[in-house]
């Protein structure tokens, strides 16, 4: 996989470049009327939704955490809490997620966040040779090896998605 940068620089691409991790940028035209950013990326890029992952900020027992799941499913909040040794999880407020990560909704990347949080990547990522995650802005996805994603985010891998 070639490392590709150009004028698409974001904190996510900077983190990958600094770590020397190979990645491919997938820019696409984002339609502001789209409700599902991840599914939009999969459709526009013509990529199986099982390989395109969304990044969700959650509150697990009063602590913010990040769940990364395929856009073809949803985050199982109970499984997310359990994977981190917690009892209860709820979606974080969107304004809190934006402040904490430094990204806007629909462009939140698990990489290069302003303030790192405990991260869980759905175990289905490891079934893929490469996965795509947000590149740090709407209309930009990054393709990389899921093992690199887990390593760079300090994530654990666990079954946290619904729709198995």
Structure notes:
The chain is α/β, with parallel strands linked by helices and 164 residues long. Helix content is 25%, strand content 26%. It is built from 5 helices and 8 strands. The strands form 2 sheets. Strands 4-2-3-5-8 form a 5-stranded mixed beta sheet. Strands 1-7-6 form a 3-stranded antiparallel beta sheet, sandwiched between helices. Strand 6 (131-137) and strand 7 form a beta hairpin. The longest helix is centred in the N-terminal third of the chain and has 9 residues, at 11-19. The radius of gyration is 14 Å and the shape is globular.
Task: Write the SSE topology.
Blueprint: H1 11-19, E1 24-27, H2 37-45, E2 53-60, E3 63-70, H3 77-83, E4 89-91, H4 94-101, E5 118-122, E6 131-137, E7 140-144, H5 146-153, E8 156-158
Parallel strand pairs: 3-5, 5-8
Antiparallel strand pairs: 1-7, 2-3, 2-4, 6-7
């Amino acid at each position: 996989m070639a490392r590709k940068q150009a004028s698409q620089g974001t904190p996510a691409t900077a983190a990958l470049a600094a770590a020397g991790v190979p990645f491919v940028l997938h820019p696409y035209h984002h339609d502001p009327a789209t409700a599902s950013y991840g599914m939009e990326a999969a459709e526009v890029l013509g990529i199986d939704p099982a390989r395109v992952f969304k990044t969700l900020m959650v509150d697990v027992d009063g602590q913010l955490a990040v769940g990364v799941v395929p856009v073809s499913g949803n985050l199982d909040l109970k499984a997310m809490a359990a994977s981190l040794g917690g009892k209860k999880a709820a979606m974080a407020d969107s304004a809190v997620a934006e402040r904490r990560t430094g990204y806007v909704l629909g462009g939140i990347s698990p990489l290069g966040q302003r303030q790192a949080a405990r991260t869980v990547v759905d175990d289905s990522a490891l079934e893929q040779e490469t996965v795509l995650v947000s590149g740090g802005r709407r209309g930009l996805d990054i393709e990389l090896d899921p093992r690199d994603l887990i390593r760079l985010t300090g994530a654990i891998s666990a079954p946290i998605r619904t729709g198995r």
